Amino acid sequence: MRAPPHPPLDALRAFGDDEAPAAEARRTAAHLAGCPECRAHLAAMRALRDGIRRASTLAPPPHTWERITARRAAGEELILPVSDAADGAAAPAAAHRFRRLPVRRAALLLLGVAGVASATVPGSPLREALRDLVSRATGAAPPPASPASTPAAGTPTPLPPPPAAAAPPEKVP
Amino acid sequence: MKEQPPGSETALLADVRQGSTDALGQLYARHAGAVYSLAFRLTGSREDAEDVVQDVFVGLPRALRAYDERGRFGAWLGRVAARVALMRLRSRGALREDALDAAGDPAAPGQADPVDRITAQRALQRLPDGLRAVFVLKEIEGYSHAEIGGMLGITPQNAAVRLSRAWNLLHTRAS
């Protein structure tokens, strides 16, 4: 009869940390009872972890306190991450994406969005200019203003176009 | 308001909030070693660990405004220091998933005995930063996978996977 397979290392770790679910812990304990190799693995893991835990507390270099007082005397103030939300852990990728967005691309994007938004506002200077441009290019009479450009009762009245936009279009040679 | 005995941690914290450098110095004397040790284990660098200690104690008077004195101050300070150290690792891209495959130097012959403290510390230092951070926070500092996930900006499941990978690397090198 073949011996049961060794439990994965993760199962040994979970067993050693008392984190294994009850059924898995029973299986691992039964395996360990008859497997000196896995007992050695578990002992080695515990020894490694305990060795790191026992490592003596280190001391910062002697000049560290002087540097702290010098920075404070210079008026330096830092905002420490006192909570997970404050340390940027939840959204570092978004923050980096924003920082990496080139300024010119961001400005063009903003202008584009503003332009599209403006062109859809009935009576807006941009919308009127576009209508004129289309009519000049096609040689057709300017299309009548869409019903949407005439404010219906109860809808906010758009601001009147500025004088420049109200001026007659230049003659096309 | 209840009067605190001079030199008690609560009295020191109150004085630090008021800007007392002497009180900050006493807190430094009590806790700088623990902050430095934790930062060194997390970053694997003495220079980074010193920077973390400096940043923590420069920012402490202001940060104490957010400390409500529930639980041990040392535990709160350790958590803040861990976040500062992790930010430092994050700023150099060391916590990205693709940085975790850098296995570091292979174990040198004669360093396989995991019982020795120095050897254990060296084995830890050779782990990739992102795996070492999870290992230290879980196995040394005792944080849960959920807490580690919150600190690193990863899921608890991902924290568990990283811990497993860290153990696998340590085990491979030690055997």
Describe this structure in words.
The complex is a heterodimer of chains A (173) and B (175). Chain A is built from 8 helices and no strands. Chain A has 173 residues and is an all-alpha fold. In chain A, α1 packs across α3. The radius of gyration of chain A is 36 Å and the shape is elongated. With 175 residues, chain B is mainly α. Chain B has 8 helices and no strands. The N and C termini of chain B lie far apart (59 Å). Chains A and B meet through α1, α3 and α4 of A and α2, α3, α4, α5 and α7 of B.
Overall mean pLDDT score of chain A? 65
The average pLDDT score of chain B comes to: 83
Shape of chain A: elongated
Q: In sequence order, what are the helices and strands of chain B, one letter per element? A: HHHHHHHH
The proportion of residues in beta strands of chain A is under 5%
Topology:
The complex is a heterodimer of chains A (173) and B (175).
Chain A: H1 9-16, H2 22-34, H3 36-54, H4 64-73, H5 92-100, H6 103-119, H7 125-138, H8 163-166
Chain B: H1 9-17, H2 21-43, H3 46-63, H4 73-91, H5 117-125, H6 129-140, H7 145-152, H8 156-174
Helix pairs in contact in B: 1-2, 2-3, 2-4, 2-6, 3-4, 6-8, 7-8
Features:
heterodimer; A: 173 residues; disordered C terminus; B: 175 residues; mainly alpha
In short, what is this structure?
The complex is a heterodimer of chains A (173) and B (175). Chain A has 173 residues and is mainly α. Chain A is built from eight helices and no strands.
